[in-house]
Amino acid sequence: MEYLISFFSFVPMILYTIVAILLTVIAIFSVWDAILLILQMIISRDFANGLVSVIYALLLTITIIVLFETVTVYFKTKHVEVRALLIAGLTGVVRHVLIYNVDTVDPFTLMGTVALLAVLIAGIVFVKPQPLP
Q1: Cys-Cys link to 95, which of 37, 59, 102, 126 (CB 3.0-4.6 A)?
Q2: 30 CB burial (10 A radius; 0-12, 13-18, 19+)
Q3: Which residue has better confidence, 129 or 111?
Q4: pTM (two decimals)
Q5: What gap in Å lies between CA 16 and CA 97, rounded to an integer?
Q6: What is d(CA 59, CA 131) in angstroms, rounded to the nearest whole number?
Q7: Cα(124)–Cα(128) distance, rounded to whole angstroms?
Q8: What is the pLDDT of residues 2-13, one digit of tens each?
Q9: DSSP 122
């Protein structure tokens, strides 16, 4: 029975390692995409549309990095940092707000987005950072 328990406690570590490797690969591709978008914006001189695309790509990169940091904190402490996940969620929602066209979005979707932002911000404010042991 003890071997079974130790096996099942080892499985999450393997899965978190796989997730960390995949997030590393995705983060590298995301940074590369942001660099290409910056170069494309400079070459085309379309700064109005290019800036939105670059910010969108950079916010995706930040979200990936925060998720990666959450996984690495789990390796150190064996606990998931809730505040970091809330920050990743907030970054993701802000990223999607950038592509909204307020004229074409129905009011329920807009109010749902505002409510989600409010909940995430409240969570970030009220959830205190966990001290590292």
Answers
A1: 59
A2: buried
A3: 111
A4: 0.69
A5: 30
A6: 26
A7: 8
A8: 777 777 778 888
A9: H
